Amino acid sequence: MTAAATAGEPLRPPFDRVLAQIEGVVLGKPRQIRLALTCLLARGHLLIEDLPGVGKTTLAHALAHSLGLEFTRIQFTSDLLPGDILGFSVFEQASGAFRFHPGPIFAQVVLADEINRATPKAQSALLEAMDEGQVSLEGVTRRLPEPFFVLATQNPFTQAGVYPLPESQLDRFLMRLSLGYPDPAAERALLAGENRRPQALAPVLTPAELIEAQASVDLVRLAPALLDYLQALIEHTRAPGRFLHGLSPRAGLALARSARAWAWLHDRDYVVPEDVQAVFPFVAGHRLQDAEGMSGGDAAAQAVLAAVAIP
Fold it and tell me: Of 210, 235, 262, which residue constitutes the final position of a domain?
């Protein structure tokens, strides 16, 4: 079985129904939808890098509505301030006290749209939220709702008015992927004009059921031989001269969580090497940089997979 074949496996119920429902509005992208569900089940956050207009926002809406999650959208711009994301306190004359007004980060699914159009100061407002599920403001720590999932989109760096995401921000994203152009059949269906509104989708799961599924992912078994394989992949990226920096321990944990989530989603309670191979390019690609500091991307990750033998 190859990693490509794994993508065609049936999903564990009721996520098979979630996939079918989202495929009705995000046409021709079953693998990307599976990866997005995997990222969510692994309690991670997802970065989608692609051109405008290929369905990134539609995917975020469809995920939130299909899973019954509260959704907010933050449009990142060059004048966005951290308070616009996190919230702020306002003095109320009637009560004679300050009252905190939560920002749009206080939702279960947060779409950070065109995140690299905002300055690094605004981008940094997401760091604590993504890493710890909380926000610290004015000496008070406030927990974010559960589950909590940030889906960010970024435009290619060839476009005007973008700021590169710093490595610390990139590392908070469990996965990075792109949607790409639709295939001819999917694009023809789009052009035919059938109305596909993700807001009209009915919830297939409740938030409590999703949290239960996330807990089940933690129980998926990683055999010692699979841990050997994970370590071999990580060590290969750290060899002198291959990359500017090898994969960190946080990246190794992200890879293990993603492999467990991919296996669980495909109705297995144990991880096989193909599960690791299926998620590795999307977990490692944005974390690997060449000697000039440029993102290695999918090609670098595939080269690592080709170089490391399965134990």
Answer: 210
Is residue 175 assigned to a domain?
Answer: yes
- pTM of this prediction? 0.91
Contact 46, 38 (CB under 8 A): no
The answer to whether residue 23 is domain-embedded is yes
- The whole-angstrom separation of Cα 311 and Cα 293 is 31
Q: pLDDT tens, 44-64? A: 999 998 888 888 889 999 999
Neighbours of 295 (CB within 10 A): 17
- Going from the C-alpha of 81 to that of each of 8, 35, 119, 164, 232, the distances in angstroms are 43, 31, 9, 17, 42
Task: Output b/e per residue, 253-277; b: 16+ Cβ within 10 A.
Answer: ebbbbbbbbbbbbbebeebbbbbbb
The dihedral through the CA atoms of 292, 246, 266, 154 has a sign that is negative
CATH code for position 279 = 1.10.8.80
Provide the terminal-to-terminal Cα distance of the chain, rounded to the nearest Å. 16
Residue 116's closest CA among 39, 169, 171?
169
Residues making up the chain, counted from first to last:
311
* Sequential DSSP letters for 65-125: HHTT--EEEEE--TT--HHHHHEEEEEETTTTEEEEEE-TTSSSEEEEETGGGS-HHHHGG
Which residues of the chain are modeled with pLDDT < 50? Answer: 1-5
Q: Given its phi and psi angles, is residue 293 left (phi above 0), alpha (psi -120 to 50 degrees) or beta?
A: left
